[in-house]
Amino acid sequence: MSSPLERDRLLCEYLGVVTARWGQMDEALCLLFSELVGDDGVGRAIFFSTGAFRQRIELIRGVVKERVIEETEIRKISECLTKIYKAFQVRNRLLHAHYVIVVKDESGELSYVNQYFDDQISFHQQNLTPLYLGRLDRNADTGVVKVNAGTFSNHGDKLSDLIYAIVDILDGIEKGAIELFNHFSETEVPQH
User: How many Å apart are CA 59 and CA 95, to the nearest integer?
Assistant: First the structure.
């Protein structure tokens, strides 16, 4: 069975970029943490043994408070970590969403399908007109199911904005990690 998400190749491509960039983000955060701890092996062991991303952020935040002297630097790093965590939450909503295709039947009633049909014939055979890709939300307490507040229009632009925001955050973290590495290390790291 194919995911309805596969119907939109651009969206799949954007989510792939977000996933790849997040791997780089994790590595940059690990480098930052390891430099703050002062030992790459120990830093990596601690950082990657922590399963939850929020715990990783809090580990870094705690070590920053102990190792960084200047209050303005602590505040800058803390603000950056907050932005990263917010980007992480958005990333999770996008990557772990249950995507559906909103369809209209002959009577005009809207519903959704969980499966992507490879061709229009399957929709036609079921007398369904595919309208748009949506993200399904099911309230655990009430059981109420909603598919977006509206259509999933401009999702490509929204995801593009998210990717650029993550890239900017990643660039900022990388610069901060290099500065901290230079601060805590005898060896200069080349900036690119």
Answer: 24
In sequence order, the β-bridge partners of residue 103 are: 111, 130
Checking phi first, is residue 89 left (phi over 0); if not, alpha (psi -120 to 50) or beta?
alpha
| 191 pLDDT higher than 60 | no
Choice between 121 and 29, residue whose per-residue pLDDT is larger: 29
Give the Cα separation of 148 and 112 in Å (integer): 12
Residue 11 is encoded by which pair of tokens?
Answer: 């969206």
Domain range list for the chain: 7-96+154-184, 98-147
- Please report the pLDDT score of residue 187 as a whole number: 44
DSSP 8-state symbol, 4: G
Angle at 66 between CA 65 and CA 68, to 5 degrees: 70
Q: CA-CA distance, 51 to 38, in Å (whole number)?
A: 21
Ramachandran region, residue 24 (left: φ > 0; alpha: ψ -120 to 50; beta: rest): alpha
Helix (H, G, I), strand (E, B) or coil at 177: helix
Q: What is the pTM of this model?
A: 0.69
pLDDT of residue 183: 56
Residues in the chain: 192
Q: Which residues are paired to 104 by β-bridges?
A: 110, 129
